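Q: Sequence in, structure out?
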Amino acid sequence: TMMQSYIAMGIVSIVWVVVGFSIAFGDSIGAEGYGFFGNPLTFFMFRGVGAGTSPDLAPTFPLAVFAMFQLKFAIITPALVVGAFAERMRFGAMCLFSVLWFTLVYLPACHMVWGGGYLANKGVIDFAGGLVVHATCGIGALVIAMYLGKREGFLTKPMPPHNRTMVMIGASMLWVGWFGFNAGSAVAADSNAGMAMLVTHISAAIGALTWMAIEWVKSGKATMIGVATGMVAGLATITPASGTVGPAGAMLIGLLAGSVCFYATQIIKSTLKIDDSLDVFPVHGIGGILGILMLSLVGKPEGFAGSGSSGFDNTSLSQLLIQAEGIIIICIWTAITTYIILKTLNIFVDLRVSREEEEEGLDISLHNEQGKNL
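A: Exactly. Output:
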């Protein structure tokens, strides 16, 4: 899975330079205000992306900086999907899937929400990626986990994490790195960026504590994995709202993230018996969608809610409906397109490894390497 994430970084970076940035942020194709794709030729091979500014995208700093910042959103999204099918998909199939999924799912979603496309014109608010990143990767993860089926032994034998210390180190890097993810979306070093960083931290902290408390009450023990997962749920849920809520709103969002995402993981695994290996859908998908809805109730569409008081007023319900439309369109687009990609790929390549390869472990059977030598 570490190699898959690294390769996703390379694949997405190349596609982004050639046509990805253009499809995401280029001139809309089609009727004005109803764009689903940007023109692939607008910034083809990064034409015009340099030290100069852009009135629409980067009015106060180089367009190249904006393109690089947005590339990091683009990289993390297909890399998150990898966690849903751990130990099941062939490496070559994963590479092909990443190219197609990034091009046909992520880029159109990015254009619709952030690139001046249909949902942007409808008034959908997504400050740092609740729809563009977390809903797309969550729904995509759910579809692919269902399509590939369960790992051998799922729910019948223990499948503990390989190394809990590495989990906590990675989670700590996420907690700090997310400040750039959310605060950077203010595209300025100003008070909005500072508040986005603050509410991001608050939600992560409350999410971790909430998940831990529920787990502690239910099982009698608090676990490192639970704390880390609750923290990530808090981060994912505050992401779309980090530009519109204050500290009080962040505390409520973190509380909901830790509790709603906790029970979502139980439903997905225990009730529906879907093997989403790293809980991508219940944590990122549900968290991102929850944040998209909550920002209309506890935030201000035009900016932060003062000292953190509720932003609820007579415009909140109308904004809630707009947000809901965004969720429906992005989720349907992602689910259908992901399924079509999987079905098409499966005609030409075997997506899933054999039972023998899975039992041996993909580290050995596909790469002839091990995470550590015993």
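DSSP finds 13 helices and no strands in the chain.
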